Amino acid sequence: MATGGKNSHSGSPQYTNRLIHEKSPYLLQHAHNPVNWYPWGQEAFEKAKREDKLIFLSVGYSTCHWCHVMEQESFQNVEIGQILNENFVCIKVDREERPDVDKVYMTFVQATSSGGGWPMSVWLTPDLKPFVGGTYFPPEDGIYQVGFRTVLLRILEQWKRNKTTLLENSQKIMSALLARTDVGVRGEEVPPSSQEVTARCFQQLSESYDEEYGGFSESPKFPTPVNLNFLFSYWALRRSTSEGARALQMALHTLKMMAYGGIHDHIAQGFHRYSTDQRWHVPHFEKMLYDQGQLAAAYAKAFQISGEEFFADVAADILLYVSRDLSDRSGGFYSAEDADSYPSLQSKEKQEGAFCVWTAEEIRWVLPDPVEGIPERKTTADVFMHHYGVKEDGNVNPMKDPHNELKGKNVLIVQYSLELTAARFGLGLEQLKALLAKSREKLYKARGQRPRPHLDTKMLASWNGLMISGFAQSGAILGKKEYVDRAARAASFLQSHMFNASSGKLLRSCYQGQDSSVEQSSVPIHGFLEDYVFVIQALFDLYEASLNSQWLEWAVQLQHKQDDLFWDPKGFAYFSTEAADPSLLLRMKDDQDGAEPSPNSIAVTNLLRAASYTGHKEWVKKAGQILAAFSERLLKIPVVLPEMARASAASHLTLQQVVICGDPSREDTRELLRCVYSTYAPNRVLILADGDSTGFLYRRLPFLSSLEKKDGKATAYLCENFTCSLPITSSQELRRILLP
């Protein structure tokens, strides 16, 4: 229970609860609340049943702004803590550690209220069935919202007076949720028409597209890499059509406007979570690993397609941020940086965005030097402030700053093109680029003197998988071996710290421990479906970038384990969780691509790639069965599953195997590989046939033994269903064929 006696002079905590024994940064943030928190587990469940008490379940994550607010207002309140401790069993869950628990109860909250979000607040019966739920509650009653104290007392009164009715209602709610979340085939369904699905998905994206600023809503605006990946693939299949041209324009314009906007950290690199406005200007300032991984790959592909160095620079910018600020020395990647921080070392309260925003005065102080060689007497600050839209009284719309935290402050946004700024001040283009780059370096150093936001050093298998893909794909496309090496180092980290070789299972999470060691929680959390699919995808991407078949071999091993743990043989597709956990009331299948793609969407492409690397045709069948299971949703509203819509095209067309016969250390082989890496061809896999007949690929794909180098030169073959084209030794000819 919460214990302790505070000494106000020593600063020792007054209360300590069971969360002190956890590893999750989010749970540890609540370890000194006066609330007697339990982690999700049998001890809490048994207490609720034994004492016939309701459960209060609070779910959040360590970089969640409103989670911090509710903790300060309610969970640090001694009187509210007393009400909770005397009448409820209180459970805290980190949604990033336990996405399974979060998904079950968020489905309930979304079905029974006006929306969802975090912190999520749900009241459960002792047998874990939900009956009331919401998100953030203020501590006391206000004009527009009932206070948390009042909600607690009303629920307690209902439990005392109408327990039987509450239990009956909770059972009815669970039955309705079971029916609502059932995803599977009905009878002998076949995969939907790929052409119909992709055309409708494009139409729906096109209708919601913002022509001026890019993106797919007015506000708030999210990066949604799944939409961009779909548009790239749609263009690749319709290059010569007006629809294809529009798809590419939509994706590239969105990526440019995001990179110009305040959602992009122009000083310390990387991208914030989302924009609160239509212009991508004022962000919610937290930075998430899953965004960085997906956006690095998206910007690299934009460069691959367009040839514009601008996109390559943004990809490199993201990877610099992750390498510097989100990397553990063991090789893994941290989860997130918080939005809130102390404005100064003397500050008592954190503010959102404090680490990132600037007053005009601060910029003038850091950049006072006069600009040489121009007619007007201007300082570096004048040029910088003009280019990045800095105003003397701040550039944040008060409507986007409800708590006045950004009053008088500036969120940097590229206001003018380099050409316009250069012309305005009479500067040469290269001179301006150098001036802005040097200014950003100086501001970065100045920003480094501020208190940093909280860093969530939890390492998740799924998000590490997304980041490995970002490094591997960017490394291959940009020709940067150091990125591929960083991806390989992270994959080795996963194999060492988040994989149980004896069981063949992935683990969900691990943590930065004392002395920068890597630690596991006392009861390790096994991987969920999303961990498997994102890691498998990462290993395929890493194989193609490094041509090291050890990653391919591990990916195939994990695919078999994924099938064993999660496949639904009756309704088809994969469940998000294993069947073994009795505390989970629903075994669900995610049916929406969001900030991250849904696991089944990625699984379709993974299965097709795995089949191409192994000849295991059962995986092609499974890919079709997933599409069949989601057929109704794909035909009606494919815009909620753009990644699966994209995968349906790959399933329909059959993946092309690009086989390169040669020695990767020789220039002729490297030239053919550069041709493949520089060409955007989404529905293909790359295979290196190096002549090692005992290797992984040769043992699974016997046809490789029949392919030879022509005239002693590195040779490419394009194969479908293991039937291959005539040999190709010219990179120009290979490019022509790869770009139909």
Automatic annotation (TrEMBL):
Pfam families assigned: Thioredox_DsbH (PF03190)
GO terms, biological process: carbohydrate metabolic process
CDD domains for this protein: SSP411
Span of domain Spermatogenesis-associated protein 20-like TRX: 16-177
Record InterPro entries: 6-hairpin_glycosidase_sf, 6hp_glycosidase-like_sf, Ssp411, Ssp411-like_TRX, Thioredoxin-like_sf
Protein name, entry field: Spermatogenesis-associated protein 20 isoform X2
